[in-house]
Amino acid sequence: MHSGGPDPDLDDVVARERRLLDPAVRRSPAIAGALLAADFREFGAFGRVWDRASILAAMAVEDAPAVAVTDLAAARVGADAVLVTYRARRTGRTTLRSSLWHRGDGGDWLLRFHQGTVVRG
What we know:
This protein is an alpha+beta fold. Helix content is about 25%, strand content about 45%. A 6-stranded mixed beta sheet has the order 2-1-6-5-4-3.
């Protein structure tokens, strides 16, 4: 788990994850798209499967408040892969989130996979 410190790659990935939670970034397909891998996929909290185009389109019209994040952790799962996990709360709903980031050919970290799971109760 990472909470800031000697690994600049983990710090970069965490900053990118937080950017994707910013409502202004989410509403901009150009800005958000620069953070997503071409083969991005998401398994949504309610079972929908999203690809890059569909998630960018959905985020562009999203009218939701910012997400409150707790328990954020980042860990390397390979030389060019980082797993980020956290708990997100928005409008009375809590979800557990996981994101798999990989370093692209250009050297930038890109989000390849994301999953949300609703916490019941």
